[in-house]
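pinned: reference chain
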Amino acid sequence: MKILVINCGSSSLKYQAIDMNTKNPIAKGLVERIGLQGSVLTHTTASGKKEVMKTSIPNHSVAIELVLKALVSPEYGALKDLGEIAAVGHRVVHGGEKFANSVVINDDVMKALDECIELAPLHNPPNIAGIKACQAIMPNVPQVAVFDTAFHQSMKPDSYIYGLPYEFYQKYGIRKYGFHGTSHKYVSQRASVLLQKPLKDLKLISCHLGNGASISAIKGGKSMETSMGFTPLDGLLMGTRSGALDPAIVTYIMNKEKFNVDQMNDFLNTKCGALGVSGVSSDFRDIEVAASHGNFRAQLALDIFAHDVREYIGAYVAELGGVDAIIFTAGVGENSASTRASICANMEFFGIELDLEKNKVRGEEVDVSKANARCRVLVIPTNEELMIALDAQELTAK
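pinned: its C-alpha cells
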C-alpha cells in the first residue's frame, strides 16, 4: 500500500510517497514559489538523487499535477501509475473544535474547513487548495485530513479558556487550540517504544523546537497542556514570532509606531522573536555562530529561548505531577546539542541530568540522559509525514 502525503503552504508544497509495508518514503519533494516568479520543484528519489524542475507554477493545482507527473516519471519516478496511490493524507493546520481526530474528507468536512479559515487565514486556504487539486485529479482516491490542532482537543477547559468574557468563546471560538499536534503525537509514541513502557503509563514533555516552536504536556498519550494558543504566535520566543507578551504591549506599539491591525499582526509574526532580539537572523544556526563570536544580542536571543523552554518545562512538570521523559524534536531540538544542554542545565531537582558526551548527536533517535537519571532526556527526530500516512492508512482501511 502506497500513500501520498501532501503539506501545502501559501506558496510551497511538500510531499512524500510512502510505502506502508516498509514505512519508508519511496520519493519526496518540495515545490517552492507557487504563484511567484522562479517556481521550482525539487524531487528526491529513494536513492537520494535530486531532480530540479524550473517551470511556471501559477497555483496549487498545477503544483499537484507536476508532483504526480514526477512520481510516475519513467526516468526518476517511484510509481508505475497513479493507481498505486491508495490514499492521500493532507496536513491541515486548523480544525477548530470540529475535529478531535483525523477524518476521511467529504463535503461536510470541506464545509467545516472553510469555516475554520478565519482561525487560520494564512494556513487553511492553501491546505484546502491542495485537497481540491487532488480531488480533481484523483477523484476516486480517498483523501484524509490530519489536523495540527486535533491532538490538543483532549485539553480541559481550565487549560484552554482565556480570561475573557465567556461569550467571546461561544461567539467567536476564542480559546487555546495548540499546534504541532502531529509531531507531538508521533514523538510521544516513539518515546513509549524507546522507554519500553506503555504510553498510557507515561508523563511526557515534548519540546518541538524549530523556527516555529511549541511544548506539550502529555499524560497517558493525551495532550494536557501546550504552549501555542489561539494562534501559533503564542508561547515561546521563535524564529520571527514574539511568543507570549503582555497584551498591553500590542496597543502600546500600535500607538507609538502608528501601525494598523494588519501591520501589527505582520510585525509580531515576521519581525520579532529571535530575529528581533538578535538582529542577526531567524535561523538559530546563524545566531549560534554569531554568539560564538561574542555577539551579545545573539547570545541573549539564545538565552531567552532556553529560559522560555525551561519555564514551560517547570510548569508542565507541575501540571503532570511529575515527568518520566523530556523529548527534544524538530530542527533545533534534534540538531543543537548546545541548546539542549542550556535548557537542561540546573534541572537536577526534576531528575533531569544530561550526559554531555551522549548529547553530542544530531538527528538521531537516542537517550542522552545520564544512566541513573530519574527523568530520561530523549532526542527523537519527528516524522509528521509518516504520522499522517498512518492515520490515512487506518481510516481508509476502515
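why pinned: The chain is about 40% helix and 20% strand. Residues 197-384 form a domain with the Nucleotidyltransferase; domain 5 fold (CATH 3.30.420.40).
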